[in-house]
Amino acid sequence: DSPWPVGASIQVLTGTVIDLSNNFNTFITLITFNTVAADTVGPVVTESVPDDAETGVPLHRTLRLRFDEPLDSATVDPSEIRLEQGGSPVAAAISFEAFDRVVVIEPTGLLSPQTDYTIVASGDFRDTFGNVFDQIPGGAADLFTATFRTGDADVTSPRVAVVDLKDFTTVQIQ
Question: From CA 174, how far away is CA 171, in angstroms rounded?
């Protein structure tokens, strides 16, 4: 009942399999794996989209934070991973992708043009092993920020580029 030692090479040998109707199949399979130490390190942000200090970011941009390991999404409070403008929270929905390694921040409306925004990750959310967010291992504060600046508003109106004169059902707009 004791755990296998760290670094042990474990081999499992399988043989005859019998189903519920007493049919059997004899085959031999050898499975080998090595044990590793338990994960005791908290998740860290490895990438932000947009990048820190990026400029000209589109006003409709979806924002993302990628972590080095999956998060326990049930431990993430929306106030811990957020978008801010001038220190105030910006309304946004939070979701997860890539097996909970990526947090998606979707602003509920267009961002303002030529404005600085900051993506913030801070708090006690955890990875799937129960380790707390630890952006600066051994540091006093666990905080990740990435600040970006939006670009200009798109003020160009769409225009008709192609019309199918046969039946007027095909229209391409640029």
Answer: 10
